[in-house]
What does this fold into?
Amino acid sequence: MFSMSRNSSAEHAADSSDGAAATAVAGVSASEGPFPSLPSPAIYAAGLSKRFGETVAVKSLSLTVQRGEVFGFLGPNGAGKTTVVKLLLGLVRPSGGQVMVLGAPAGDREMRKRIGYLPELFRYQALLTAAEVLRLHCRLLRLARSSWEEQTRRSLETVGLLDRGDDRVGTFSKGMQQRLGLGVALLGDPMLVVLDEPTSALDPVGRRDVRAIIGGLRERGATVFLNTHLLAEAEQVCDRVAVIDKGTAVATGTLAELLGRQTRVRLKVGGLGESWWSRLGRFGRWHRQQEWAVVDGIDASQIADLVDEVVKLGGRVEAVIPEHQSLETRFLELLSDR
Amino acid sequence: MNLTLAIAGLTVKEAVRRRLLLAFVAITVAIVGLSAWGFDRLTHSSSITSGERTLAVPDALILFMFMFSFVVALSASAIASPSISSEIESGVLMTVVTRPVRRSQVLLGKWLGLAALLAGYAGVVCALEFAVVDWVSGFLPPNPAAVTVYLFAEGALLLTLALLLSTRMPVIAAGVIGVAVFGAGWLAGVVGTLGTAFGISALRTVGQAGRLLIPTDGLWHGAIYYLQPSALTSGSLTEAGAGPFYAQAAPSWPYLLWVACWFLIVLTAGLVSFERREM
It folds into this structure.
């Protein structure tokens, strides 16, 4: 099973006593860490747990999301993803552990000004127009009144609703309401945008637009926490991902780390007869598939060496096809390991 | 305060667009029109004496106002009970409470918006009804403003209670409990009156306890007192002898102080409950 990567100071802090970790993180300011060049993580959770009665929704979850990252939070239905999102936003209180967002305790009122949130269950005031909903959120964000019109126009334009700004939300399709929700989440140029299943009601065009919006957020240095069960979506936009199952993270890392450097290579070799690979067992596990010789578990950096060795054996290499594991395959593998 | 007013404004705007005010206006005009016809018949009937008329017109007005107080109470419960719970269930509140706004500002804003609607309704109803009765029969209650305030206060208490219930209960449960509490309060008042009339101390105690636990009936009796002609309130008629639609005295200051405390306790409970509510 892929183990959680532990490459951040905050996660190392979590390995020490809880109190020490809390002190280390609580001392980090909202915008800057103890050293000006080391900002506090966008999200830091250590030993986070949440119980609803007898049901354990989140169990000793630890993760760190650095600023500027597009972080994918993946898991099957009922894995606890939305509960984690609610813990990050202070909508529910943790039963144990700690969680810091942008250097402040989760749910901190001032910090909420820097967070945009698109909930999984997106509903907005049906009797207001889209522009009125956005202006309401400008007001709740305490933005300068002079900026409301520009913020509203920009949001509507970004999510493709500029021509529907004066229409009541109640007349919108689910997809349009989700677009509006995304526009609401983008108001005030937030430092952290939490998107909970942001494309669940969107058509392919809408999904492409969301990817473009996430790309735009990345370009301006915002952190994106993308909660999704659509693996292709995560594969296309995320810098790092965590896979959660039964309330706990089963893997965290970049996609390359998560998928592993190990891969499968198919070779079509002439001139060597049967079972010629018995002398090349060090590269991985070999077997035959029709005319192909297949080696599993080979390190990607060793493919060139393998070809050299085949040539040295007198083989004629007719084809070499490396096959990377898909995120979906890896995801299913991770869950089946449990 | 600014954000509280923003939520209050939103609450009023949504009520207006939901055509709630239109429904209020339609009901009010219909009932006031009906009462104009009824008071005209009563005033100009040759089958009753002028002395009987002096008593009958205020009595009829009290009955009409009782109906309006019921509408105010029912409306307060109906408009407040969905305001938190249904918005949590639908998800509308998720994006509001994750903004840099206190939950207390959200709840107070909703209270303020709904209370403004109730106050407007109570004001319009009382002004229209009193004007019509005065025009048709020549009777005007001695203190119309006090009646309006008591009617509004009665609704405001139920509004506050329904908001508290709405922070924890589904819409229908909160609404039904709000109305049931109003009914129980009124019934406790009647039981207390019967206890006084027949000298049954247990029933009298139930009535007194009821007016403390659910002060809506106590406030309704404040409205009754200011609806009665001054000749009646200064007379020797006792409350026990005149029934549940008569008030011998205005609510005392200690009682009004208790009502204010009751309001603050319930409102604070609502604020704490909403603050601690997980979504």
In short: The mean pLDDT of chain B is 89.
